[in-house]
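Here is this case:
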Amino acid sequence: MIKLILGIIITVSCLLAAVWGIDPEQIMESFRHADFRTLPIMFLLLFVFFWLKAIRWRMLLEPIKHLSVSQVTPAMMIGFMGNNILPAHLGEFLRVYVLSKQFQIPKTTILSTVVLERLFDIVAILCFLGIGVYFAPHLPDRYRSLSILMAVVISVTIMVLGTYLIWTEAVIKLFRTIFSHLRFLPVKLTHLVIEMMQAGAQGMAAMKSIRLSVGIIWTSFAQWAINGLSILVALWSFDIQVTPLAAFVVLGVTAFGVTVPSTPGFFGVIQLCFWVSLQAFGVSKADAFAASIYYQLSQYIPVTLIGLYYSNREGLKLSDAEKEAEKELEELEGLDSDAE
């Protein structure tokens, strides 16, 4: 309940900040002059984005269970639909629950591949954001300093992943030794961490194959390049003449902005992220708001409808799946409470 209230407060605050000082007539004027003939292009780019995402997830799961893209797609789309209509990012847990139920794969193992996905997403998004910030013209020098910090974060992340991948057993053994000396930690918590690390090793098994690791890396960068292109098309649809570098900045800020607690669908948060990103490029607040609505709805409506279609096709009761996802989340939160 606390998270729900916090999410509502953040959503309303972001939405108010995004529209503050805008005359509603300015927004209507932006929509009247928009070119909505780009909508089929937006849908095509959305299809390619999720197709690449499904290919990557299939490759991450390959050492665990050989599945096709068509087999992983339903669980993936149901999960993203869950993020659109369920609170607290429960879609990620819903996605794990559905795939585990369909193919009898341990939930912790599937969760480890989802976590690894997020790590690759972070690296790819930071790269695009860093490129956009560093090379975009007329941005303050402090923005370029930020891009250097991003490069450091990316390097450290890659080094940590590489160490864990190459010396997996040694890293797990090290953590087991550290936990054995931290006697104030609950035994249940230490066992869960070790279990997650061992499951994570299974999730990272794909990275030990050159073929799979190359595929995972290129699909990670390709899908976010496609998403950045979607943002650019949305901006151009409202006659916002910016370069792809500006779209990369919007992509990065928005991708990290939606990680904050908010109501399902991230309404308000995305609008504020667009404005924060585009004001440095001289874009009017009304145009940024209108373009963000166009971009968001072109993503939100198809993903939600496709997810609902797959959940109905699989005979999945959304209420039951939501309870399972909440139960998984509550177990993790319960362990966090024990640790405190």
